[in-house]
Amino acid sequence: MQLTAKASSNHALLISIQTPQFKGDEAAASLAELARLVTTLGFKVVGTQSQRLNSNQKVSVLGSGKLAEIAHLTGNQGLIEESEESEESDDVDEMLFTELPSENLSFGSADVVVFDCDLSPSQLRNVENQLGVEVFDRTGIIIEIFSRHARTRTARLQVEIARLNYLAPRLRESAIGNKERQMGKGAGETTLELDRRKVRDQLAELRRELVSVQDELKGRRTQRSELFCVALVGYTNAGKSSMMRALTGSDVLVENKLFATLDTTVRALQPITQPRILVSDTVGFIKKLPHDLVASFHSTLAEAHDASLLLYVVDASDASFRSQLDVVHEVLKEVGVDGITKQLILNKSDQLSDEEQQALMVEFPDAVMTSTRNPADITKLHQYIVNIAQDEMIEDEIIVPYTANGIIGEIRSSMSVTKEEYEYEHITFTVRSNPINLARLKKQMQNKD
Length: 449
Hints:
This protein is α/β, with parallel strands linked by helices. The chain has helices at about 25-40, 65-75, 120-130, 140-150, 155-165, 175-185, 185-225, 240-250, 290-295, 300-305, 320-335, 355-365, 375-390, 405-415, 435-449; strands spanning about 10-20, 45-50, 110-115, 135, 230-235, 265-270, 275-280, 310-315, 340-345, 370, 395-400, 415-420, 425-435. The chain has a six-stranded mixed β-sheet with strand order 6-7-5-8-9-10, with helices on both faces. The protein has a four-stranded parallel β-sheet with strand order 2-1-3-4, with helices on both faces. Helix 4 packs antiparallel against helix 5. The longest helix is centred in the middle third of the chain and has 39 residues, at about 185-225. The chain is elongated and about 95 Å long. The termini are far apart.
């Protein structure tokens, strides 16, 4: 599967199937999000259609009447088959999202069709045959976005594993399907099996490589375990990367796009504190995040698992941020992130009126209201992080001989020194640090004695 927005093939028609379990505002919000996902890939959304059904498990997904209607919009390039399955409900089909491009949909207006649900391989094949154009489901679109945006070795491995897991059962819909028709059933089946074996071999090799990379990442996290670590988590496009840049002065990519960054970035909080505080920006979440992607990104989300503080960043100007926050909770629970101090950050407050800000603070009295464009807000958030880190520290005295130059330097660089008393043979440091760092340093001094 490889999506490419070409000049001759970039007009997408989005399809929503509303069921008794998935309808109304929820379905409308999901379809709006799909429009943003498709646009992120460079396609132009020319319209949206919806149909009310009891389920989305039909062989051809939609009823034959709706398929015929959509086939007209895609140029009648396929073969519409009469189905013996029960037709769609009597509810009137409706066009959604009047805010989308308002061109009158006509014959051949769309050359790509995207469903806001997951389709089985057989459903995908049936719909493509009947419409005669490329058809994609929501998972396919999300995996393609992840594939394009992965930059580091870790992210590329994780996304490729998810992509191949998605592709493997759909190989029949690739060029192999043409070979089957050209070469005959027997040869086609042999080719298909060879191709599937190749994918299995690729997956095995990628998983081995990912294990090696994960070991390296685990070693780095172990080295950072003595430091207070803050992880930014949240829905995609909530402003985590902008907050990361504001808190650390780093040059992380900031774009108003879904999944602009996939790779975990770790930087020191600025201005530098003593001891240092680390901040990590994790991959953003989304509703209906494919299970294979959640599984593949376990190692990336390990930054959140090992953090001392989780900042739940939400776009407070988005009316759906509450349901998005539920998604973040669900994904973190799935990867085993629990028992860590959490703080809700109501971001993008500059896009809210004073009345809206006040209402949110009444609803979420413990939240921190911020705008990354307001230096005063970033200063306030910086101090909040420092205060939380200080609360986790303990005070202790360390007696260090003058001859232990390395230890003296390490204390001053890795701990908060509140007092120094110079004696004849040693210095008595009064320090504040986390218990792990203190225990390690004392053990190191004992080994030197």
